[in-house]
Amino acid sequence: MNNWVIQTQDVHKGFKGKQVLLGVDLNVPHGSVVGLLGKNGAGKTTLIKCLLGLFRLDDGEITLLGEDPWTLSAAAKERLGYVPQEVSLYPWMKVQQVVAYTGAFYPRWNKALIERLIKEWELDPDAKVSPLSVGERQKLAILLALGHEPELLVLDEPAASLDPVARREFLRAILEITSDRARTVLFSTHITSDLERVADRVAILKDGKIIYHDELGRLKDSVKRLQISAASPLPTSLNIPGTLRCEVDGQEALVSVRDLNDQVVDGIRERWNATVQVRDLNLEDIFLEMHHV
Amino acid sequence: MIHNRTSFQFDVAPSSGVPIYRQLMDQVQAEVSGGRLRPGDLLPSVREVARRLQINPMTVSKAYSKLETLGVVELVRGQGMRVCAPVAWGAVHERQTQLRPLLEQAVARAYQLALTKAQVWAVLAPLLEDLDDE
To answer: Which residues pair with residue B14 across a beta bridge?
Structure first.
């Protein structure tokens, strides 16, 4: 069987003269939880809609669950769960009616799971949908996407309007459904702390491309900030390989690098007769460093 | 032989710059060297740790398999990860390389604190007393 749930090759997509995706390559392995990270307007939603066949590509190629997403079969759709950023439900229905209505479309529907989650997430089954808050509606939409226990769950900014308690419950549900490693989750976010807990991989979308995609642990292992203190004034450009940001102030310098290794540090020590301290960066720091202009 | 699963509990800070798998590794190694985890003790299962800390199970697996590679724990079929008796793994210079970054940090701090070599040595020497001389 193919090891990739999603394969994306050189995807281009634009709208009326504005190019959003400029050659996206992103392969999502089976059983992983991938966080798609990007600034507002980076194109996360556009990419997700391309992946799901909701937008037609300008150029490039996508394989979703082994098929072309534009002509996705009903069988593949059964294996797919999707929660869009803007949730539109049926405002006149009650929560339990929406659940029953949605469940009726699927041959496989885990009623027990949904009933349990409704309780845990403190949704009132008899409440009408229309007066629900944005957060409650988002919870409901996530529930509906979990009911058929999809192999691939795609969530566009799922936690954006959830309060911290609901967010933690949501993350727990994600971990719960992925604990057997049979399922794959791709979720977009700009909230790095959500990602740090549940994601095992992170993909960063910037300037229309995926500029980084790897294990989260490896990202934190390789992107570091160097605090350099030299014996004599440093040049304004240090030419350190993989520099993301460099600030030189006399004999002192702060340099953020990707792919740090011992040779880089030793090289700096010898070249400028400097002491070098290596600082760890968390995901938010790394994200900011990667967006430094 | 039946081993007790320890009541050992991990604690992680997901938003730290230290990857979660490394935090888990560090904690096991600290507990082993501090004698609170003893050879033969079993670490809590991957599932249990992931559920309790609400983190991705893959992260826990990664920490455990790295600890296994380092020879800190070993996989016992049907039981889980068992703490190994301390053995010297790797050549001396490799083990020295592992120690070096920690000492570098200490030296850098000593420099900031304006301590002399002799003053640093006065702090370090008593700490070394428990080590073997051979």
So the answer is: none
Q: Is B19 on the interface with A (CB under 8 A)?
A: yes
pLDDT at B130 > cutoff 90: no
* CATH number (domain holding residue A246): 3.30.70
pLDDT surpasses 50 at B1: no
Q: What pLDDT digit, counting tens, does each position of B34-77 carry? A: 788 889 999 999 988 998 898 988 899 999 999 999 889 999 98
Complex-level ipTM: 0.74
Q: Token pair for residue B119? A: 């003053």
Fold of the B20-83 domain:
Arc Repressor Mutant, subunit A (1.10.10)
Helix, coil or strand: residue A84: coil
Helix (H) or strand (E) holding B20: helix B20-33
Which residues of chain A have a CB within 8 Å of the CB of B105?
A: 277
Q: Tell whether B108 lies on the interface with A, counting CB pairs under 8 A.
A: yes
Check CB contact under 8 Å for A197 and B54. Answer: yes
Tell whether B18 lies on the interface with A, counting CB pairs under 8 A.
yes
Same structural domain for residues A280 and A151?
no
Residues A106, A204 within the same domain: yes
Residue A192's domain comprises 4-219
Contacts of B59 in chain A (CB under 8 A): 200, 216-217
Identify the top-confidence range among A50-64, A118-132, A183-197, A275-289. Answer: A50-64
SS3 at position B62:
helix
Q: How many domains does chain A have?
A: 2
A50 and A191 share one domain: yes
A195 with A32: CB under 8 angstroms? no
Identity of the residue numbered A279: R
- Chain B residues whose CB is inside 8 A of the A216 CB are 19-20, 59
Residue of A64 and A195 predicted with greater confidence: A64
* B62 lies within 8 A of chain A by CB: yes
Domain endpoint, select from A163, A192, A219: A219
